[in-house]
Amino acid sequence: SWPMGMEMSAKLLAEKRHRHNHRVSEKRRDGFPKIGHYDTWEVDELQLLVYRNRGFLLFPHWSNSSEYVSTPESFDVVALQSEDVQKALEARCE
């Protein structure tokens, strides 16, 4: 086992979820580029750079994350414990 805090656990789960979704997209989405890594922000930057300099999209089927508007939605770990347990955990962490 590898002991870590709640925040680090949430970050690792988010990374695992991102990698899983990326692999599934490579396998099942038509036109999804096989880029050989999971750093999708680099593909976003490359896509914008090529478009600005050459006027065409390097990966036409790529959804650039910078084209989306931020929303208050959250996709993360959800606590399922009771309110009393949550208060005890918060008090312990302070």
Short description:
Helix content is 52%, strand content 0%. It has 94 residues and is an all-alpha fold.
Report what the structure shows.
- The longest helix is centred in the first third of the chain and has 23 residues, at 6-28.
- This protein has helices at residues 6-28, 40-54, 83-93.
- The protein is built from 3 helices and no strands.
- Helix content is 52%, strand content 0%.
- The protein is elongated, with a radius of gyration of 19 Å.
Number of helices, where a helix is a run of at least 4 consecutive DSSP H or I residues: 3
How many beta strands in the DSSP annotation?
Answer: 0
Q: What is the overall pLDDT average?
A: 86
The helix content, as a percent range, equals: 40-55%
Strand coverage percent? under 5%
Q: Kindly, what is the distance between the CA atoms of the first and last residues, rounded to a whole number of angstroms?
A: 25 Å
What is the element string, with H for helices and E for strands? HHH
Biggest pleated sheet: none
Query: From the helix content, strand content and strand pairing, which structural class follows?
Result: mainly alpha
Q: Uncertain regions: pLDDT < 50 for 5+ in a row?
A: none
Regarding quaternary structure, what we see is single chain
Outline, from the CA principal axes?
A: elongated
Radius of gyration: 19 Å
